[in-house]
Amino acid sequence: MPDLYHYLQQLVNGLTVGSTYALIAIGYTMVYGIIGMINFDHGEVYMIGSYAAFIAIVGLGMMGLDSLPLIIVAAFTASIIVTSAYGYSIERIAYRPLRGSNRLIPLISAIGMSIFLQNEVLLAQDSKDKAIPNLIPGNFVFGESTMNGVVISYMQVLVFVVTFVVMLGLTMFISRSRLGRACRACAEDIKMANLLGINTNNIIALTFVIGATLAAIAAVLLGLQYGVINPNIGFLAGIKAFTAAVLGGIGSIPGAMLGGLVLGIAEAFGADIFGDQYKDVVAFSLLVLVLLFRPTGILGRPEVEKV
Amino acid sequence: MSNSASLKTAFFSALLVLAVAYPVLGLKLTTVGIKLEVQGASPAVLWTICGAAVLMFVWQLLRSRLSSLWATVPELPKMPGTASDFLTRPSTQRWIILALVMIGLVWPFMVSRGSVDIATLILIYIMLGLGLNIVVGLAGLLDLGYVGFYAVGAYTYALLSHYYGLGFWVCLPLAGLMAAFFGFILGFPVLRLRGDYLAIVTLGFGEIIRLLLRNMTWLTGGPNGVSNIDKPTLFGLSFERKAAEGMQTFHEYFDIAYNSINKVIFLYLVALLLVLITLFVINRLLRMPIGRAWEALREDEIACRALGMNPTVIKLSAFTLGATFAGFAGSFFAARQGLVTPESFTFIESAIILAIVVLGGMGSQLGIILAAVVMILLPELMREFSDYRMLMFGALMVFMMIWRPQGLLPMQRPHLELKP
Fold first, then answer.
1. Is residue B415 part of a domain?
2. Residue B149: which of B194, B187, B196, B107 has the closest Cα?
3. Is B416 part of a structural domain of the chain?
């Protein structure tokens, strides 16, 4: 049954990419849920995270350390520290002074920030592709052979496992912890939360840091899987993750997870049907179609505009 | 704030500066042979980063004391209210625009060829800025895919000229119509979306148009684009050295020596003419009910709906008209370059046009003209900093939103204020 294997393979690939989209999408959806703005530069934070991870990996390699778990843990740590610092600083510099103004103004500021960050990396690093060898080679094969079966690489397994653990952790954090409850309270009604003694400034900063952390995790996973980065990867990743967030219903965390997976699968099958060069067109078209026919997304709730 | 608390904040801020700056600026991934290596940046960069961290530390530590000191310092003299009132009044701005047009008419005959060329580029951006101003500044719809309509205009002329040999003046209205058609078709379904969703959908459309242009190789030549596009003619007179068959050249007709600067000046004048038409049309429209409706919609959509206006029609007209001007600008761009490729129409281009509108002051035409001059001229003047151009664009956009979201030279609307 070559056809079935082929489709299953596409499904696996789609789910892999989709779960990383979901991780990035959470950054969009949480910020939107709380302060109602699109942090357009989130994709660039992801890009900076992948640079931090590569620097850590290559740096450890130069020091002669080649224990795989150590390298991977170092990549995650470095990436998370750097992106959290960026997430916090960006919120402080570009968004906090604009809180409460017309909703287009923070968006324009975010676009400016995104251009700034992309060019910062472009100038400090350079525009060339940077590649590392595959750290976790090897794969599982289901079926008769690699040509006639489903191939799941160890790397893909790592992506699934890490994403699952992170999502579970985040869900627990949001639903069980004190801070998570404060986040939900802010998403419900930020003024009221403020009146009830929640330090909303801190919660908003925390949201940005959580988003940046998840983007860093996605950056390490995708960086290890593809092994190539350049300063321009942030734009596309950002748009696609935003699409995922909208697809699932912006503001809803389970929605972002679902939206990421749906987008990943749609893209994999779209590329299969229309050809690889139309992969991005499929993603953008999906974004447009969702916004046209169900602007609230799969799990979103309709928003009532009040005077 | 207590001393230990402010020490903690200061320490945290300094660490933050290090975490933000050091990994990206202080370490560089370099390909050595086939291997990737991490190299440290030059000592100067490292010292700058350390200096910034120390500065941040000191500043955070002394902030509370400084701010009390600040209060005792007399305020800097601000621009007097009457002067800014005078500058933002519509009648003043109209006179300044008129003066600028006069200068623009005489100017190309006195300066070098290179300057005229840059001026033509500035005029293209003025046209794009004015067009986007209808959508963003007047109707309040954030359009991030404006460059898509610019691309449609450019490719309309390029393809018609390439396949059917049509001239610039025939194609100019066609390009406008084509872009308007796209604006209408794309605008129709999306305009009921709320502000920021609309921004992202238009961004998606802009990218889809560019990707289609790149992938439909059989029609558009793919990544190589369309080349050898004809330049505009003056009533059939060509500005080339040798005319094509059945055509006459400008210098032969008027019996003067061939000079390539004539072509550059002619292109400049065509651009100026297009800008003037744009200005004229937009100014007329602003006085019509539709122009008033755009601004009303920007201010309060719910109130507009309550007054019985149809938001979709109003938004659609703004979107379509904005697209039309992008189409005109695009076809002129194609004629000037003689070459169009999909890479001329990336998102960054949209961001630059948006930056012009934002910097100038949304809704203000004089502001946009000045902003276009500044944005295009500055990078040309500071060639050695040209790498930093986009970096500065980005920083400027953030800075403007925080410091002066209404733009450098906003326009006053006729209004009355109730004083409590």
1. no
2. B187
3. no
Question: Could you report the per-residue pLDDT of B296-329, keeping only the tens digit for each?
Answer: 888 888 888 899 988 888 999 999 999 999 999 9
Q: Which of these ranges, A144-153, B114-123, B349-358, has the smallest mean pLDDT? A: A144-153
Residue A219 contacts B, CB cutoff 8 Å: no
A181 Cβ neighbours under 8 A, 6+ residues apart: none
Q: Could you tell me if B44 and B111 lie in one domain? A: no
Among residues B14, B34, B67, the one where a domain terminates is B67
Q: Any idea which residue has 């979103």 for tokens?
A: A300
> What chain A residue is nearest to B397 in terms of C-alpha separation?
A112
Decide if pLDDT at A307 tops 70: no
| Whether B43 and B107 share a structural domain | no
A98, B401 Cβ separation under 8 angstroms: yes
* CB A237, CB A25: distance < 8 Å: no
CATH of the domain at B318: 1.10.3470
CB contact under 8 A, B207 and A280: yes
A 67-96 residues inside an 8 A Cβ radius of B: 78, 81-82, 84-86, 88-89, 93-94
CB contacts under 8 A, B 267-296 vs A, are: none
Q: Residue A226, SS3?
A: helix
Residue-wise pLDDT for A137-179, tens only, equals 878 887 777 677 788 888 899 999 999 999 999 999 999 999 9
d(CA B285, CA B412): 17
CA distance A109 to chain B (A): 4
* Residue B277 domain boundaries: 85-403
Q: Does residue B73 form part of some domain?
A: no
Digit-coded pLDDT (tens) for A5-20: 888 888 998 999 999 9
pLDDT attached to residue A303:
61
Instruction: Extract the tokens encoding B314.
Output: 């109003």
Task: Assess B58–A contact: CB distance below 8 Å, yes or no.
Answer: no
Residues B203 and B255 in one domain: yes
Least confident range of B38-47, B123-132, B238-247: B238-247
Question: Could you give the number of structural domains in chain B?
Answer: 2
Q: How much is the pTM?
A: 0.86
Q: Are residues B22 and B97 in the same domain?
A: no
Six token digits for residue A168: 């579970």
In this structure, the answer to whether residues B52 and B196 fall within a common structural domain is no
- Residue B43 distance to chain A (closest CA, Å): 14
